[in-house]
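RECORD TYPE: inverse folding
INPUT: structure tokens
STRUCTURE:
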């Protein structure tokens, strides 16, 4: 037995290696190989692994005649381990007497059940905690089988895709690192629907990282608060609800996997209650008269009330006729008329800020709850708001007026803000809020003593100007490329400028229904990055003339030439 078989040398094993050692060595070597790029190396490793397993299973029969005495009886603890772990046991007789191996599905199911139990009992409080919990399961001997390991990975993706639970925001990061999901999108696609959801969340997380630092940090702050509190207080809801809604609208999969979206409804209720108490009618106070039980009126009382109503109606008609006659007799000139003409006009309220842009295609609405506006004075500015018309709103023809309630401090800096009357579109509402936040208000002298408690109304009007001069016609292909290219995330340095082509199925509104790879560039990383960009684009721009085609071929290159 001094000669070591070649398949053991290839795995770095000694002649006394058993099945357990062979499986561990195979798993270690497999991590060094890219199965897609190095198919031949993977095939050789697989053949070596199978040969080593066959050798290990028949080794006891070959060595049996050489042994001079029976092997010693195992200790009680070792015997228990043999019965409890069939994978680690070395067969002591002919192959027919060996214990039945557990199927990969059963092994993966048992490890997943234990993992889910630990996750629910002790949710991770950091990414390191989640990585430790995940690695503990991955090091389980039952996952040495590649099929069992794949099933475990698929179940982790399913746990994440099912929605947020305590600690899932940390598990999402740890799993993406452990399974290399960010580097290999195709790996997630093989995990089914759950893998597609996780892949979309990773794409949205990359897009969120591209937001301005201040805006991104505010969203992360309020998303963390959303996970922890269903009612963080009126001030936190007033300042943070718009950030949360904005994140949930732009990054729905990522927010659903990493935040407790059920709390959004609770926050909206708190916001509605706060708005109604601040601007709505005061609640009716109970009194003994109104709280007394209602008693039906007698017939005589009904007759009396009817007579009173008739007499009142007649008096009203007579008085109206008398005033009309007096108005016809009143002279149209003289001192009284002169005073009426010379009375100073009331100060006009500042007009709403209008933003003209291109002609209007069909639109859709998504209204939000409105707040009473009757008592709020109009806002005047030392630094006027400069709203930016969202590009998607231009594409979909969204327009409307947003009335924003603003609470300034003594210097006119905006301290509190909320949408009092929606335009019907969340994108326009968010753009109006962002514009008013950067404005500076002028506090009237008669309101100076009420600074900090007086809310002002700031109207922002988004208008698609049909009377504007028509812009020069643009090539639709250039419009499509301009819509997709900002969504491409690809930093690898590739040789040449290879082209990948996709066949896109489009709806009449421009929505991308399906994207199918027509011709690969030969670089899987670039193909995956282009596919992610197409999915993130979601809608193709509408052509200046004609309708959107039902199908198109889109070619993309990594270098924008």
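DESIGNED SEQUENCE:
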């Amino acid at each position: 037995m001094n000669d070591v078989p070649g398949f053991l040398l290839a795995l770095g094993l000694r002649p006394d290696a058993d099945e357990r050692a062979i499986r561990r060595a195979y798993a270690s070597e497999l991590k060094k190989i890219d199965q897609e790029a190095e198919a031949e190396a993977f095939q050789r490793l697989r053949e070596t692994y199978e040969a080593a397993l066959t050798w290990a299973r028949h080794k006891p029969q070959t060595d049996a005649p050489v042994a001079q005495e029976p092997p010693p009886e195992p200790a009680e603890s070792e015997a228990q381990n043999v019965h409890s772990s069939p994978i680690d046991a070395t067969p002591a007789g002919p192959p027919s007497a060996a214990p039945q191996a557990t199927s990969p599905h059963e092994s993966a199911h048992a490890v997943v059940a234990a993992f889910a139990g630990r996750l629910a009992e002790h949710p991770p409080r950091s990414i390191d905690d989640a990585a430790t919990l995940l690695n503990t399961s991955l090091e389980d001997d039952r996952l040495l089988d590649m099929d069992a390991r794949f099933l475990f990975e698929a179940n982790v993706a399913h746990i994440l895709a099912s929605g947020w639970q305590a600690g899932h925001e940390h598990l999402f990061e740890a799993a993406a690192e452990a399974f290399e999901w960010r580097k290999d999108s195709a790996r997630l696609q093989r995990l089914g629907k759950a893998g597609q959801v996780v892949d979309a969340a990773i794409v949205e997380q990359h897009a969120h990282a591209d937001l301005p630092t201040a805006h991104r940090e505010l969203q992360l702050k309020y998303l963390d608060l959303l996970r922890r509190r269903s009612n963080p207080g009126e001030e936190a809801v007033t300042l943070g609800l718009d950030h949360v809604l904005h994140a949930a609208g732009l990054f729905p999969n990522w927010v659903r996997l990493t935040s407790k979206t059920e709390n959004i409804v609770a926050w909206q209720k708190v916001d509605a209650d706060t708005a109604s108490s601040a601007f709505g009618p005061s609640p009716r106070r109970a009194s003994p008269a109104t709280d007394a039980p209602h008693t039906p009126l007698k017939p005589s009382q009904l007759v009396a009330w009817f007579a009173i109503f008739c007499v009142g109606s007649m008096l009203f008609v007579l008085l109206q006729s008398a005033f009309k006659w007096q108005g016809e007799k009143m002279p149209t000139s003289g001192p009284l008329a002169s005073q009426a003409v010379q009375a100073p006009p009331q100060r006009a309220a500042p007009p709403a800020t209008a933003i003209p842009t291109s002609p209007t295609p069909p639109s859709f609405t998504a209204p939000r709850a409105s707040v009473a506006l009757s008592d709020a004075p109009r806002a005047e500015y030392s630094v006027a708001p400069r709203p930016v018309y969202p590009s998607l709103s231009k594409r979909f023809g969204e327009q409307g007026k947003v009335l924003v309630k603003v609470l300034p401090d003594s210097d006119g800096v905006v301290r509190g803000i909320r949408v009092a009357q929606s335009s019907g579109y969340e994108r326009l509402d968010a753009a109006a809020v962002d514009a008013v936040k950067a404005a500076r208000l002028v506090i009237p002298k008669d309101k100076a003593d009420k600074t900090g408690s007086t809310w002002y109304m700031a109207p922002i009007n988004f208008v698609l100007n049909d009377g504007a001069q028509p812009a020069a016609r643009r090539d639709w292909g250039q419009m499509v490329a301009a819509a997709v290219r900002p969504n491409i995330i690809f930093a690898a340095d590739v040789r040449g400028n290879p082209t990948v082509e996709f066949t896109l199925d489009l709806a009449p509104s421009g929505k991308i229904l399906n994207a199918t790879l027509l011709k690969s560039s030969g670089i899987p990383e670039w193909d995956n990055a282009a596919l992610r960009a197409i999915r993130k684009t979601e809608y193709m721009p509408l052509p200046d003339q004609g309708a959107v085609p039902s199908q198109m071929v889109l070619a993309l290159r990594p270098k924008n030439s």
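NOTES: The first helix runs from residue 6 to 11.
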